[in-house]
C-alpha cells in the first residue's frame, strides 16, 4: 500500500495537485472580479465573514454551491462506491481462491479481507461526515436568497461546514491504526508507542489464530458435506 502511495504522491504530482487546487479556487473566484461583474465581495453580517454577496446574484450562489459542495459530494460518493465494489470483488476472489489454498494462506487472506472491509467502513464514515457538515451550509445559502434567516442559523452552518476539516484527523485516528501509530510517533510518546506495538502484536497473533480456526472449521464442514454427498 505504501509503495502505491509513494508512486502517487511524488514531489511532481504533489506540486501538480497543489497548483490544480489553487487554479480551481481562482476560477471559482473569477466571477467576483470587476471585469466580469457576475457577483462581488461584501461583509456578510449573518456569517460575519467577508465573502461573495449572497444577496447580489442568487444565480452565482447556485453556481458556487453546485460546484463547491454538491459536485464534490457526488464525486466522492462515486469514488467511494468504486472502492467498495472493488473490495467486494476482491472478497469474492479470495473466497473462491480459498478452496485451493492451505490453512495458513487462507488465514492471511481472511486477515486481508477484514482489513479491506475496515478501509471501506472508514471511507464511508468520512463521506457521511463530509456530506453532513457541508449540505446544511449549502441548503441554507440556497434557501435564504432574501436573507431572512437569523444570524444564528448562518453562523451555525458555517461552523459545522468548517468543522469538517478539523474532525477528519480525529476520524482517521480513531478508525485507522496506522494513523494512530503516526500520531504517537509525531507526539514523541515512545513508551505509549511501545505499549501499542505489543498490543498490536498480541492482537495480530489472535487474529491469525482465529482466522486459521475459521478456515479449518470451514474445511471440515466442506469435507463432511462432500462425504455425505
Automatic annotation (TrEMBL):
Domain G-protein coupled receptors family 1 profile stretches: 1-172
Transmembrane segments: 12-30, 62-85, 123-143, 155-175
Pfam families reported in the protein's UniProt record: 7tm_1 (PF00001)
Keywords for this protein: Cell membrane, G-protein coupled receptor, Membrane, Receptor, Transducer, Transmembrane, Transmembrane helix
UniProt xrefs under InterPro entries: GPCR_Rhodpsn, GPCR_Rhodpsn_7TM
Organism annotation: Dimorphilus gyrociliatus
Classification of source organism: Eukaryota, Metazoa, Spiralia, Lophotrochozoa, Annelida
Main location: membrane
GO molecular function, one term: G protein-coupled receptor activity
Subcellular location: Cell membrane
Name of the protein this chain belongs to: G-protein coupled receptors family 1 profile domain-containing protein
Topology relative to the membrane: Multi-pass membrane protein
Annotated GO CC locations: plasma membrane
Amino acid at each position: 500500500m505504501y509503495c502505491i502511495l509513494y508512486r502517487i504522491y511524488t514531489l511532481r504530482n504533489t506540486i501538480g495537485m497543489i497548483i490544480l487546487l489553487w487554479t480551481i479556487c481562482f476560477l471559482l473566484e473569477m466571477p467576483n472580479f470587476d471585469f466580469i461583474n457576475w457577483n462581488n465581495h461584501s461583509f456578510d453580517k449573518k456569517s460575519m465573514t467577508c465573502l461573495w454577496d449572497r444577496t447580489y446574484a442568487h444565480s452565482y450562489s447556485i453556481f458556487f454551491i453546485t460546484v463547491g459542495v454538491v459536485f464534490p459530494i457526488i464525486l466522492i460518493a462515486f469514488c467511494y462506491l468504486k472502492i467498495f465494489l472493488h473490495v467486494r470483488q476482491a472478497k469474492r476472489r479470495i473466497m473462491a481462491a480459498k478452496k485451493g489454498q492451505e490453512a495458513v494462506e487462507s488465514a492471511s487472506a481472511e486477515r486481508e479481507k477484514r482489513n479491506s472491509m475496515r478501509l471501506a467502513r472508514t471511507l464511508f464514515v468520512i463521506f457521511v461526515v463530509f456530506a453532513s457538515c457541508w449540505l446544511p451550509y449549502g441548503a441554507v445559502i440556497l434557501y435564504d436568497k432574501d436573507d431572512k434567516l437569523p444570524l444564528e442559523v448562518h453562523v451555525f452552518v458555517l461552523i459545522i461546514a468548517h468543522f469538517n476539516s478539523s474532525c477528519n484527523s480525529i476520524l482517521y485516528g480513531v478508525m485507522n491504526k496506522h494513523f494512530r501509530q503516526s500520531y504517537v510517533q509525531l507526539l514523541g510518546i515512545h513508551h505509549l508507542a511501545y505499549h501499542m506495538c505489543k498490543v498490536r502484536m498480541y492482537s495480530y497473533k489472535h487474529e491469525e489464530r482465529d482466522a486459521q480456526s475459521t478456515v479449518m472449521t470451514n474445511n471440515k464442514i466442506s469435507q463432511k458435506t462432500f462425504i455425505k454427498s
